[in-house]
UniProtKB/TrEMBL annotation:
<keyword id="KW-0604">Photosystem II</keyword>
<dbReference type="InterPro" id="IPR036291">
    <property type="entry name" value="NAD(P)-bd_dom_sf"/>
</dbReference>
<keyword id="KW-0602">Photosynthesis</keyword>
<dbReference type="GO" id="GO:0015979">
    <property type="term" value="P:photosynthesis"/>
</dbReference>
<dbReference type="Pfam" id="PF05368">
    <property type="entry name" value="NmrA"/>
</dbReference>
<protein>
    <recommendedName>
        <fullName>NmrA-like domain-containing protein</fullName>
    </recommendedName>
</protein>
<keyword id="KW-0934">Plastid</keyword>
<dbReference type="InterPro" id="IPR044256">
    <property type="entry name" value="HCF244-like"/>
</dbReference>
<feature type="domain" description="NmrA-like">
    <location>
        <begin position="25"/>
        <end position="240"/>
    </location>
</feature>
<dbReference type="GO" id="GO:0009536">
    <property type="term" value="C:plastid"/>
</dbReference>
<dbReference type="InterPro" id="IPR008030">
    <property type="entry name" value="NmrA-like"/>
</dbReference>
<dbReference type="GO" id="GO:0009523">
    <property type="term" value="C:photosystem II"/>
</dbReference>
């Protein structure tokens, strides 16, 4: 049904772009399309009938999977603003899922690069801009990435584009590497002494809700926060993973004191070559919050959704462990069938 709606809009509701060139309302450029969120947004929009173009940086390993899904790709780099305009020709909506990698210059990508992206979108007559930010970034402007996200939100308001800002709490996908894999492998789990709770969301649900945002005119000019049904602390995640994998013993958990992380941040901030590390360690101040979450009732109503459509941490991790344990069982069976004795 969604696909038919999108096709109808594409056929009957062209919008004037730069120079009066008509563009389809279903033509979308996804920036950061190879990331955890970006790839899910691409896949969902393709399923819903959108014409999806993906901005990807020049890279040794091509993003072939995006083209295999049915998207087109264009090469550009936020570090090089001159490469951006050509990617937006014939595009109605830009969805900005990008953020810098750990080894990259945060200001170079998340501020200078994003500013150039927004300026270009405005100049090219882009009709809609979706920006992903971080929950409570306006309360933690002393944290560099939070400050950059907040500045970008404000800049979008200043340039006067039709935009929607979506603030996120955390992805369930991150729980796999941090908790599920080491517990399944009987390895040490690393965490912090913080008791903060996070309302994690599955990136596929964020993508689903983003598609609804595009179909809902009432979201233009709004800042929405997407949060999972319930917030969890690290102890609860560890206990849940332990129960789901059927472990006999509790895993070894090494907790790093928040005070120690603050001290490390202070040391690394003294040196230019470790300043990016210090900027990321600044998130320790965010971790002291009691709960990173949001009330979703108004958002569900706005998007025509309900809570049952969004995965819980329990259902997400259950599916992961069921899949992995089934694979391990098959591997053990295969290993036994190939054993032989002389």
């Amino acid at each position: 049904a969604v696909r038919r709606v999108c096709r109808a809009e594409a056929d009957g509701a062209a919008v004037g772009a730069l120079g009066g060139t008509p563009v389809k309302k279903t033509s979308v450029l996804v920036v950061g399309a190879t990331g955890t969120l970006g790839r899910q947004v691409v896949r969902k929009l393709l399923d819903d009938g959108y014409d999806v173009r993906c901005l990807v940086r020049p890279r040794p390993i091509p993003a072939d999977f995006l083209r295999d899904w049915g998207a087109s790709t264009v090469s550009a780099d936020l570090y090089d603003p001159e490469t951006i305009p050509a990617t937006m020709v014939g595009v109605h909506t830009v969805i900005d899922c990008a953020t810098c990698r750990p080894e990259e210059d945060m200001m170079g990508v998340d501020w200078k690069g994003k500013s150039a992206l927004i300026q270009t979108a405005k100049a090219m007559g882009i009709q809609r801009y979706i920006f992903f930010s971080i929950v409570d970034c306006d309360r933690h402007e002393d944290v560099p990435l939070m400050q950059v996200k907040r500045r970008t939100e404000e800049y979008l308001e200043q340039v006067g584009m039709n935009h929607t800002t979506i603030r996120l709490c955390g992805f369930m996908q991150a729980l796999i590497a941090q908790y599920a894999v080491p517990i399944l492998d009987e390895q040490t789990v690393w965490g912090t002494s913080s008791a903060s709770r996070v309302a994690y969301m599955d990136a596929t649900d964020v993508a689903k809700m983003t598609s609804r945002v595009l179909q809902t005119p009432g979201t233009i000019g709004r800042t929405l926060t997407f949060a999972g049904p319930r917030a969890y602390n690290s102890d609860e995640i560890v206990k849940l993973c332990t129960a789901l994998c059927g472990a006999d013993d509790d895993p070894k958990v090494n907790e790093v004191p928040l005070l120690g992380l603050r001290a490390l941040r202070g040391v690394t901030s003294f040196f230019a070559w470790t300043r990016s590390v210090a900027d990321r360690l600044a998130f320790v101040d965010v971790m002291t919050d009691s709960e990173i979450s949001a009330d979703m009732e108004e958002t569900y109503e706005l998007l025509g959704m309900n809570k049952s459509e969004v995965a819980t941490v329990e259902s997400y991790l259950t599916e992961y462990f069921d899949t992995m344990l089934a694979k391990l069982k098959d591997l053990r069976a295969e290993s036994k069938s190939t054993d032989f004795y002389i």
